[in-house]
Design brief:
Blueprint: H1 12-26, H2 34-53, H3 63-76, H4 81-100, E1 127-129, H5 130-138, H6 146-161, H7 165-170, E2 176-179, E3 182-188, E4 193-197, H8 200-215, H9 241-254, E5 273-274, E6 276-278, E7 299-301, H10 313-320
Parallel strand pairs: 1-6, 5-7
Antiparallel strand pairs: 2-3, 3-4
Helix pairs in contact: 1-2, 2-4, 5-10, 6-8
């Protein structure tokens, strides 16, 4: 047990293992998602790597050390404020676990905040106009290959039904729900599960996509991913969230709704944003600050469509042409 171990004897691996256990017990009332545990582990590993370079044992870190780490995130890593906020939150949680287990007396990361963004909050509210959504759907592939059908269904269901990236990533064949002539998809996010009803056009497209996979010889079981990777290395595996984001970005750029990526010292995008369809009015996003960014950056999704207030009929007419 941690309480029977001398803190100085704990290696970074020991600390990581026990922090993972702490996250599973303490985060989300003991129901932490696997993605959360992985994110926390990767973030703490980065902090430990920084400590190693500084010849600093993580449990010996002071408030000044955490501030130096923050400066490193800002000046050397050039992370965005939302990303720095996430990383500092995880470090703070790591030390909270260490305090709870008696390894240290006080949390050195308490009260250390990320830099403030000099951005008008209104600029964070991103959305798509009706004409832009029509243009986006018009940019989708028309061929009935597995890849073409996958991309067409993925983008369309996210736009028209308001599904998130994580929900599409986790969806399996067994999550397809049929009730009479109605078809839906059971999706799960970070803290909730729901059934997304499909329009008749989307249901037909889903069937075409699944039939194409069956014709290729693939056996579809309940736990088979709904959206699969098609590259040689991971063919048939679950399409990752980053890959879903790349698919969305590809068609946003094709429709002229997103700038080409800019070189940023070889680092991957730090945060993602959602585009919201609108009928001429901005709709406020409910996502957390860590998922917000400008339209010119990578999007997490193209969704959050309010079907009741959004004029979708012309959009679906455009979609039918495919």
């Amino acid at each position: 047990m941690l309480t029977q171990t001398t803190p100085k004897d704990l290696t970074p691996t020991d600390l990581l293992d026990n922090f993972a256990a702490f996250v599973r017990l303490d985060t989300a009332d003991g129901n932490a998602a696997d993605d959360t545990v992985k994110t926390y582990a990767c973030t703490v590993k980065q902090f430990f790597s920084w400590c190693h370079v500084q010849r600093l044992h993580p449990l010996d870190a002071t408030r000044d050390d955490i501030k130096e780490y923050r400066r490193w995130l800002v000046e050397i890593q050039d992370y965005k404020c939302a990303t720095i906020a996430l990383k500092l939150t995880v470090v703070r949680r790591f030390y909270a676990g260490a305090v709870e287990r008696g390894l240290i007396l006080a949390n050195p990361a308490l009260g250390i905040k990320p830099p403030r963004e000099n951005i008008d909050p209104a600029e964070r509210i991103n959305y798509l106009e009706e004409a832009e959504v029509i243009g986006l759907l018009a940019s989708l592939p028309t061929e009935n290959t597995i890849g073409g059908l996958r991309d067409r269904f993925l983008v369309a269901v996210m736009v028209l039904e308001g599904c998130r990236t994580v929900e599409m990533h986790r969806a399996c064949i067994g999550d397809i729900i049929k009730r009479g002539s109605d078809i839906g998809i059971r999706v799960s996010g970070k803290r909730s599960r729901r059934i997304v009803p499909l329009t008749p056009d989307l249901a037909k497209l889903l069937n075409k996509y699944l039939n194409a996979r069956k014709l290729s010889g693939e056996v579809l079981n309940g736990d088979t991913p709904l959206f699969i990777a098609l590259d040689k290395r991971t063919y048939g595996g679950r399409l990752s969230r980053r890959s879903i984001q790349r698919v969305i970005d590809k068609y946003l750029r094709a429709a002229g709704l997103k700038e080409q990526p800019k070189k940023n010292k070889g680092k991957k995008p730090a945060s993602f944003q959602e585009h919201q369809p609108s009928n001429g009015k901005k709709q406020h996003s409910s996502q957390s600050a860590s998922a917000k960014s400008n339209r010119g950056e990578t999007s997490e999704a193209v969704t959050r469509c309010n079907i009741k207030t959004f004029a979708v009929f012309s959009i679906r007419d455009s979609f039918k042409t495919h």
